[in-house]
Structures are given as structure tokens and as C-alpha cells.
Amino acid sequence: MTCDRCDQAAKDGYDYCPKCGRSLRGCEMCRTYADQGYEYCGNCGKRLKEKDDRTLEKAVFIAVPFVVAMLAIEAACMLYWFPDTLAGVKDLSLNMFLLLPSAVSLGVLTGAGLQAYWVLLVVAIVASGLVMLYQSRAIFDRRSANYVEGISRTSLFWIAVLFSADMVVVLVIAAIEGSLGYTIAVPDDLPMDLSPEAFLAYANAAVWEEIACRVIPIGIPMVVVAALCGKKDCIRYLLGGTGVTRVAVVLMVISAVVFGLAHESGWGAAKVVPMIFSGLMLSYLFIRFGIYASIMLHFLIDYTALMIPAVGQEIYSFILIAVIVLGFISVAKLAKDIRDGVRRIDRMPVWIQESSDSKRD
What we know:
With 361 residues, this protein is mainly α. It has 2 domains: 1-51, no CATH class; 55-360, no CATH class. 60% of the residues lie in helices and 4% in strands. It contains 15 helices and 2 strands. A hairpin with a 3-residue loop joins β1 (93-99) and β2 (103-110). The protein is globular.
């Protein structure tokens, strides 16, 4: 029978398992037992069928329709109220900032300039959604022989995983902090209705915060690293999606910490730790898939606040409860992936991925 190292050793090209010494090449009886449908050879014990270790992927995939429904509702609200918001933002003002690491004001947008900016935000979100759907087209091809493996490499699948996991982890952190006497202070001026202020504020967070917290602290340093490594196409590293490396992981953590600390002034200290976790999720999507994926997750999280006035408490509660329940499975998958990633860290590229196929990470 196989040990816990046999399968990985066979994939790595070994003829014998370095732990138990079993031959990984099989014997003359392997074919016979395989033709009879056995999982192991009765003579040498070699595994004849690949072990299906994608149970978690199959379970988490159930969350995808709920996340798609939420994205569709939120996008429909943004587009339906687009004209009203366009007219309303003319009388508003928006402070633009960078995080270096504290907020540094770039100036205030008002009037026609803010209207143009609202249009750009909507274009960026819609374009990100279209790119996400195109990259995730494998989800809609159920005839594929490697369907489960295919969907687990899509940005939509990972947005569903990270969103549902984020809901659970943030609730757990908030509960722990609450038991210790720390509560999140929701800003008094935070819009929670279908007003131009709300649509603008959450769209701005989805797009501009991803530029300020992902492109600047991760994308720009990765461009510099790629240039120092002699990559002629180094500029493509600016918008992410170029693969997980040790340098990228360090930048991901720095970005998440800055993202979390940036919420302290408006939400209180209790908001920092949950936002660091959310920042890690957003940064991972940026590194693995690109800024379009982190924008879509940020949009999904922030525009959730507008679902109650848009669709009602009942529909909102049903979808959100389903996502949270599935989130416990997503947390289990993340824990497994983190464990496997730590084991493979010695094989992780230090600086940049040589292959542009970041979906293999």
C-alpha cells in the first residue's frame, strides 16, 4: 500500500518512494488490476487511480451561484441608478488620497470633474466584471473532462472562496474583539441607502483603494523587481496577475497591513485586524489574477451594504446566510491551501515568475 509520500514522489518523477521505498513504476500486474477497476494493484500496491483530492473545491463551488447573484444585483443597482448618481454627484465633493502609509490628500474632486470620475469608476467596474467572466468561462463548460480543475483556476471561483471566507473570518474576529470589549465604530456619515453619496463612495472604494493599496505598494515595486531581473515587459507587473513569488508575498502582507491601519481613523482600532485579513484576500487576487479580480471582490464586499434597500431584507438575508454557511468550507480550503503553500515555499520563485501563467500558482 502507499504511504503519504508516494503520490507526490511519483509526480516528482521518482522511481521509488524516498520514505517507504516502494516502487512507483508498478509491476506486470498493474494493468490487469486497473482493467478490472481496482484502485490499487493487488500485487505491488501501486495506486492505479488518481486520488480525488478536490472535495473542497466541489463543495465551495456551490457558493459561486450565490456570489454571481450578489454581483448581478449590485451591478444592476449601480447601472440602474447611474443617471441619478451622475446628476447627484455634481453637488458632492470627494477627497482623493494615497496611503504612504498614512493617508496623504491629493486634492478634492467636485462638479463636472467628479461626474467624469463617476463615469470612469463605472467603466472600470464593468470592464473588470467582463474580464472576470471571460477568464472564468471554464465554469460554464461542464462538458470539460477536467471541469473541477478548470473552475478552481478561475478568478470567479476564487472570488467566491475569498468572499465567503472573509465573511466568516471577519464575523469571528468581530465576535472575539467584542467579547474583549472592542467594538467597531461605524462612521456616522457612512451612507447606507440608494443615494448618490453611497454609490459614489463604494465605487470609489472598489477602484481607487485598489489602486492606492495594491497597484502602488505591490504593482510598482514588482515593476522595479522585474526591471532589475532584466524583464523587458516589466511594465505588465504594474496591474498584477503575474504570479506568486516570495517577494510578492512580502509585498502582499505589507499592503494588507497598510490597508488595515488605514481604517483605524474612521472605524476604530477594532476594524484594523478584520481589514488586514480582507487586505490579504484582495492582495492575493491582485497578485494571482490581476487588479480586475481585486476590484470585483472589493466591489462585491462594499456594495453589499446597498442590497438591503435594493432587494429587501428577506432576499438579502437568504443569500448572505447561504454565503456565510459555505464560508466555513471556504475557510477549510484556505487553511489547506496555506498549509500546502508553506510546504512548497522552498520551490517558490524568489523574485518573479518565469511563466506568465499565474493561474498555475
